[in-house]
Amino acid sequence: MYWIFSLQLPKSGRLLVQMRYNVAMKNIVILISGRGSNMQAIVAAAKQQQWSSRIAAVISNRADASGLVYAEQQGIPTAVVANKDYPTREAFDAALQLVIDQFTPDLVVLAGFMRILTSDFVLHYTGRMLNIHPSLLPSFPGLSTHRQALLAGVKVHGVTVHFVTPVLDHGPIIEQAQVPVMADDTEESLAARVLVQEHLIYPRAVRNVVEGNLVLLNDQVVRLSTPTDC
Ligand code: GRF
User: Fold this and answer.
1) Residue 112 Cβ contacting ligand 1 at under 6 Å
2) Which structural domain, as residue segments, surrounds residue 31?
3) Residue 209 CA, ligand 1 centroid: distance in Å
């Protein structure tokens, strides 16, 4: 996208300055492992709100991830880097990084990407990789968060969007949303209530980071301009 700025002298009417700025669209690469409902929420928000960034690619570690079908239907480039094809975690992450970087990402978004990532991979994307975790971190990192919440008997549960750092599910928090836990909740009913909130906060967090309103500085989330409240 080009923005053209020009100034004219009022008397002569002659063109004084013309500058062209190439305001390149930012690239968002989304990683999924399954249905990709968060990815779909981000794609839909980007379209509806006319973000000045594009979903450059959706990449999965599983060829059978159903979210890939949706991405293809939306005309988004997709790729599969199957972890089962690589002998080690390091080899897989290196191959994944090569594919991601072909799309020159400004932001990498983990949206239900079910892999533990190596430190080298995570550090390569410092400040430009986000994750969504279905609990109110620091409570319940890891898997089966809704079961953990029910077993702990908490009355409030929720979801967290955070920058990714080498420690699993511990990065600086960008946004959280909470939901009540009902006496008759099952893992499924609680997960469904949390998922509604996921689809609200993740697109907003992605937009605020990719547009530079929120940045990671010295392991802290810093607000540089008023975050979009969409
Ligand atoms: C979501 O609950 C997300 O928070 C977690 O995995 C789930 C993925 O769901 N990390 P989807 O693939 O986005 O529908």
Assistant:
1) yes
2) 24-223
3) 20
